[in-house]
Design the sequence.
């Protein structure tokens, strides 16, 4: 049986680190009890580039930063997936653009639903689920519709793309049902994908909330220049609220981020909270919805999620255009307005986000103006 990536973590080191942290806490002065913020000193937002390619796709969703140059991928560039086509139909976008930090945009991949090398029920509608694996293998989620309306939404798949933009395989079935967001970890020839799924009984419920959203862990074997292969699929989270929505298509568990200790944080959009699934990389079964870290407060339908360099959780609100920073203990310690247009202000504009490589900012997509932007 394929080992999960984090089975390589040294348990003794984790115990030692925990003991040291407790000792430091006991000796720390009172003023040190106020957690330091990552985004607290960021003051401005700037537009990096438009995310609209030549075919007119709009509604940018996923964001992933290139770690190593290979093929068409350039270190430091940002990949962005588009969810809508030029007619603004949700679940029909088929492009991933590559944007340099200086604002140069090029097309990384245009995925033709008629020539996919494997099953993808319903076709192509690229979601926030976007990750880059060693060797430059790009994995993107598809939650497709035929006309942009939720009654036509289908299960979709995960699409694997070579570093030259060529689609090589798909992963479908086995619990993959409306892959909505994703994060990944890798090492030693192995990789784990953590994928939220939002179509388990959602369409048939006709707008009512059903508690069937899941988080899957897909264990992959990496083969260098050959496509990765799927070894096992494990449901590690379940019971999240999900529902169709006339403006957002579907609302359910969205952003995921993996902390260094193996905890997976999940943006529970319907529950307006952040949940934590412990031992996410090694657990053999579902933790349900995990532990509730925080709800309400500055959160307003959290969507995209990322882990800050200081270990805090960054989420962007679908309801009011804010980014919120939350400690692992549940304290919401900072927030910033990223988008103030629309009615209500900032509604539905934010999805994917990623920390910049120099850790001096946060990239995010702004659906109102179809652009990649930077908070710094």
Sequence:
């Amino acid at each position: 049986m394929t080992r999960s990536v984090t089975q390589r973590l040294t348990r003794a080191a984790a115990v030692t680190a925990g003991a040291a942290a407790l000792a430091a806490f006991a000796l720390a002065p009172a003023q040190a009890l106020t957690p330091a913020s990552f985004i607290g000193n960021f003051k401005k937002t700037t537009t990096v580039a438009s995310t609209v390619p030549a075919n007119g796709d709009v509604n940018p969703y996923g964001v992933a930063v290139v770690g190593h140059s290979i093929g068409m991928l350039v270190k430091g560039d940002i990949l962005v997936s588009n969810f809508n086509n030029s007619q603004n139909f949700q679940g029909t976008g088929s492009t991933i653009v590559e944007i340099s930090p200086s604002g140069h945009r090029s097309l990384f991949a245009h995925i033709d639903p008629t020539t996919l090398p494997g099953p993808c029920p319903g076709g192509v509608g690229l979601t926030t689920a976007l990750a880059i694996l060693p060797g430059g293998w790009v994995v993107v989620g598809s939650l497709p519709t035929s006309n942009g309306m939720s009654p036509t939404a289908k299960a979709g798949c995960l699409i694997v793309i070579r570093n030259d933009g060529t689609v090589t395989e798909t992963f479908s079935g086995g619990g993959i049902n409306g892959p909505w967001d994703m994060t990944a970890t890798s090492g030693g020839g192995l990789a784990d994908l953590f994928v939220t799924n939002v179509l388990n009984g959602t369409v048939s419920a006709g707008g009512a909330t059903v508690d069937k959203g899941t988080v899957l862990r897909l264990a992959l074997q990496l083969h260098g220049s050959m496509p990765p292969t799927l070894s096992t699929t494990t449901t590690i989270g379940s019971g999240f609220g999900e529902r169709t929505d006339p403006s957002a298509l579907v609302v359910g568990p969205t952003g995921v981020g993996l902390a260094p200790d193996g905890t997976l944080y999940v943006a529970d959009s319907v529950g307006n909270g952040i949940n934590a699934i412990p031992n996410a990389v090694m657990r053999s079964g579902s933790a349900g919805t995990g532990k509730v870290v925080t709800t309400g407060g500055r959160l307003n339908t959290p969507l995209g999620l990322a882990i800050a360099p200081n270990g805090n959780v960054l989420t962007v609100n679908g309801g009011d255009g804010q980014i919120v920073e939350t400690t692992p203990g549940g304290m919401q310690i900072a927030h910033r307005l990223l988008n103030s247009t629309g009615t209500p202000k900032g509604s539905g504009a934010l999805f994917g986000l990623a920390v910049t490589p120099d850790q001096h900012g946060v990239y995010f997509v702004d659906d109102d103006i179809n652009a990649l932007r930077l908070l710094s």
User: Anything to note?
Assistant: The helical segments are 11-27. Confidence is low (pLDDT under 50) at residues 1-32.
